[in-house]
From TrEMBL:
Pfam family name, one: TonB_dep_Rec_b-barrel
Protein name: TonB-dependent receptor
Domain TonB-dependent receptor plug: residue ranges: 146-251
Organism of this sequence: Asticcacaulis aquaticus
Residues spanning the signal sequence: 1-25
Family note: Belongs to the TonB-dependent receptor family.
Subcellular location: Cell outer membrane
Domain TonB-dependent receptor-like beta-barrel residue range list: 338-765
Principal location: membrane
Record flagged with keyword Transport: yes
Keyword annotations of the record: Cell outer membrane, Ion transport, Iron, Iron transport, Membrane, Receptor, Signal, TonB box, Transmembrane, Transmembrane beta strand, Transport
Recorded topology in the membrane: Multi-pass membrane protein
Annotated Gene3D superfamilies: 3.55.50.30, TonB-dependent receptor, beta-barrel domain
């Protein structure tokens, strides 16, 4: 039996043993009255404010499940009395564990009592950058302003629409960038850590999670439509201790709305979009939450279907825009409270995304025009099934989770420039396509102590297998002769145990230490055939097997003189294991095996919130050392390879600030300023030039404003976001160096709520910017013609939603 599976079995056994044990008796102490002042706001934010005013801890149900109406609470009250008032009329009640600890539970009602009629969803209260939101991306419940790390939260109203994806979210997170290769093709970067804008054999530098399950390995972002979302949590800096490999620069966690017990609700939405010189776009969404008999279980279903009209006119193929994208999918989630302390969660997520063509241009025909002989489609089919079992005890929370993912990706390219490397007579009209299928299975067991103890801990075990099939294929379109064919399978097994200990060793002081010991094995089997390229053998088979046992750490020291100020220092690291290059090229300096890389980070920061909550400031300075950088690059033929380019550094300053100018007007500034350098080049690749890292700007900033008021008594919210990115190199100079110029953009949105309806108007790229947007186009033509990937032209979306 593998060590990781054995460790998981031990933790599962302890979970079942803990199920049979009796909970400890709750400590009975008298509440101390407080002078409490709470404005009418959504329950999660109201509870956070109550925690700050009273010093209590609140656990149990997600407050979003309570369906509580925003209400103001003020006066000299105990914490228990204030909680009762906030929860009055909701589907939740409160249990007191001890004088400082409370638990939200489902409200019980007599069996004979009639079930209440479905209630409309409470009107959302705007969440600004000043709100202290509870999150779990650090593996335990923690408030954003008291977490000693670089974290960002994006929550409603920015997520209240039905047209959101990560490219629209990035300007609201300092240091976050998303490429613009096209739907289902993009990569995510954090904190100036970029290995390449290409997606190839290397594992992602950012861990992307859907709730508690990883949904990427070395594939691009599946570009899930973010419908019915609770929030997005971003944890910056290497996270090898908490999340293992694939979190070299941080973690992005997509948190969905969970099924709500004892509460029926539904919502349908329709939207229409229009861009200049483009056909109409449209979108349809449906959400349904249905409690099951007994009020201990519920299911929540989300469905959507979207057509995004193209804006690139490929004049050699058609007179119309050719890069249309169709995206359809949904989620089905089940929540079952087996017992008050034992909960089963299950979720299935599917999405089918198909783009009919790429979105770059070549030549001088105009910002949205080109003339290619062949279309370059992209299909991205995503499926994920997740199960988790959670047991909450007074001694801590046990959790066992299992995840099974299937991700199928198909991409095609016009490969005419490869014709000069073909060893036989050919038509010159060549086509390259690749299919990638990833099957990823994860199992994890963990035990987390209560968050209100002076000594807190986290222990866990993890096991995963990634089974990937990669089949690139190059053909002569006219003769249908194969010029390159490969069938490659990669199997990566990971096993790890991890722990983290946090100790409040003195008043206002905390220290924490974490370790993760991992064992990774990577096996490759590649069969290459029908090769008709110059200096290539016609056939070949490459196999390999490598292992690694990296150990990652985290060390943190923090000082919190009062609840509004936190100062911290942090040391952490991340890693990725190595892999294999497969080719029949007769002469090459590129090794068959590329090594794993490791990134070490030092960070110091502070977080401040003014007494009245009008001003919030998060600031961090970080320094990163990156050794043996893995990078996906291209051979002269355009075929992929992975290199260890050398060592790099990045020193940066990160800022997130919020200012509530007026009760209904909030301003937020986000910025990151970098000095990325490739300071040591692998001598095997003398053509690489030292300098900046690709796709990482020296500066990226955004300024947004949220204004809330009423129109004839109905809530009306406005949001404006202005963001700028400075210039950046596109690649490391292995091929002809390419530099992207900077650009500025503006997005606008307004939402009106009336009764059970909401109407939203959104304008993206309001400045109609046509600049190159930090992406490459055709990898086979990077050194033959200038390519530009423009932003999507100014697009107007109008959506209407109806709640039930």
């Amino acid at each position: 039996m593998k060590p990781s599976i054995s460790a998981a079995a031990v933790l599962l056994g302890l979970l079942l043993a803990g199920t049979a044990s009796d909970a400890r008796a709750a400590e009975k102490k008298t509440d101390k009255p407080h002078d409490i002042r709470l404005d009418a706001r959504a329950l999660p934010q109201a509870l956070t404010a109550l925690v700050m005013q009273t010093g209590i801890s609140i656990g149990g149900l997600d407050p979003a499940q309570c369906n509580a109406r925003p209400r103001a609470v003020s006066g000299t009250l105990t914490a228990h009395q204030a909680l009762k008032k906030l929860l009055d009329g909701s589907s939740c009640d409160v249990q007191r564990i001890d004088a400082l600890t409370y638990k939200l539970v489902a409200r019980l009602r007599p069996a004979s009592a009639p079930k209440p009629k479905p209630a409309p969803r409470p009107i959302s209260v705007a969440t600004s950058a000043n709100d202290d939101i509870t999150m779990v991306v650090v593996r335990h419940p923690s408030r954003q302003l008291s977490t000693p790390a670089g974290v960002s939260i994006v929550a409603p109203p920015l997520l209240s629409g039905n047209d959101t994806d990560l490219s629209l979210i990035a300007p609201h997170v300092s240091g976050m960038t998303v490429t613009n290769l096209g739907p289902g093709r993009d990569k995510i970067f954090l904190r100036g850590i970029s290995d390449s804008v290409m997606t190839g054999r290397t594992q992602s530098t950012v861990g992307l999670y859907l709730d508690d399950t990883p949904i990427t390995y070395n594939a691009p972002d599946p570009d899930l439509l973010l419908v019915d979302m609770a929030r997005i949590e971003v944890l910056k800096g290497p996270q090898g201790n908490l999340y293992g490999q694939g979190a070299l620069s941080g973690v992005v966690r997509l948190v969905t709305n969970k099924p709500r017990l004892a509460q029926f609700e539904g919502e349908i939405g329709v939207a229409a979009g229009m861009a200049k010189d483009s056909r109409p776009s449209w979108r349809e969404t449906v959400m349904l939450n249905v409690p099951l008999p007994g009020d201990t279980a519920a299911v929540r279903a989300v469905l959507y279907d979207e057509k995004s009209a193209g804006f690139i006119k490929d004049e050699a193929l058609t007179r119309n825009a050719t890069n249309d994208t169709r995206r359809s999918g949904g989620r089905l989630a089940l929540k079952w409270e087996i017992r008050p302390d034992l909960t089963l969660d299950a979720a299935a997520t599917v999405q089918d995304l198909r783009s009919s063509n790429s979105q770059y241009v070549v030549g001088r025909r105009g910002p949205y025009r080109r003339a290619l002989s062949l279309a370059e489609p992209h299909d991205n089919i995503f499926q994920n099934l997740a199960l988790s079992l959670t047991k909450a005890q007074t001694s801590g929370t046990w959790r066992l989770s299992v995840n099974r993912l299937s991700h199928e990706i198909h991409t095609g390219y016009d490969a005419q420039p490869v014709g000069r490397y073909v060893a036989i007579a050919n038509s010159g009209i060549l086509y390259y396509e690749e299919d990638q299928t990833i099957r990823l299975t994860n199992i994890e067991a963990s035990f987390v102590s209560p968050p209100d103890r002076p000594l807190r801990w986290l222990v866990g075990a993890f096991a995963a297998r990634s089974d990937e099939t990669f089949t690139p294929h190059l053909i002569d379109v006219y003769t249908n002769i194969t010029l390159y064919d490969e069938v490659r399978e990669d199997i990566v097994d990971d096993a790890a145990i991890f722990s983290k200990l946090t100790w409040d060793f003195a008043p206002k002081w905390s220290i924490s230490a974490g370790l993760r010991a991992q064992r990774s094995r990577h096996r490759t089997d590649s069969r290459i055939s029908n090769v008709r390229l110059v200096d290539y053998l016609p056939n070949g088979r490459i196999t390999g097997d490598i292992s690694a046992s990296p150990v990652s750490h985290e060390l943190m020291l923090s000082y919190q003189p009062h609840e509004r100020l936190l100062i911290y220092g942090l040391s952490s690291d991340g890693f990725r294991t190595g892999g294999f290059n497969t080719t029949t090229l007769t002469t090459t300096v590129v090794p068959t095996i590329y090594s794993g890389d490791k990134l070490q980070s030092l960070e110091a920061g502070f977080k401040y919130k003014s007494p009245a909550g009008r001003v919030r400031l998060d600031m961090a300075v970080f320094h990163i050392d990156w050794h043996d950088i893995q990078s996906d690059q291209l051979r002269a033929t355009g075929l992929p390879r992975t290199l260890n380019l050398g060592d790099g550094k990045n020193t940066g300053l990160e800022i997130e600030a919020g200012w509530r100018v007026l009760p209904d007007l909030n301003l937020q500034f986000r910025g990151q300023f970098n000095d990325p350098k490739l300071d040591s080049v692998n001598p095997l690749y003398p053509t690489i030039t030292k300098g900046g890292m690709p796709y990482i700007s020296k500066s990226s900033t955004s300024l947004s404003a949220q204004w809330s008021h009423s129109l004839f008594g109905h809530p009306l919210d406005h949001t404006a976001t202005l963001y700028h990115r400075s210039s950046s190199p596109l690649n490391y100079g292995v091929t002809a160096p390419v530099t992207m110029r900077g650009y500025t953009n503006l997005d606008l949105a307004s939402t009106l709520e009336f009764n059970r309806y909401s109407m939203a108007l959104r304008v993206t790229n309001a400045l109609a910017n046509k600049s190159n947007s930090f992406a490459y186009g055709n990898p086979f033509a990077l050194d033959t013609a200038a390519q530009t990937t423009p932003l999507r032209p100014r697009t107007l979306w109008l959506s209407v939603n109806r709640r039930f």
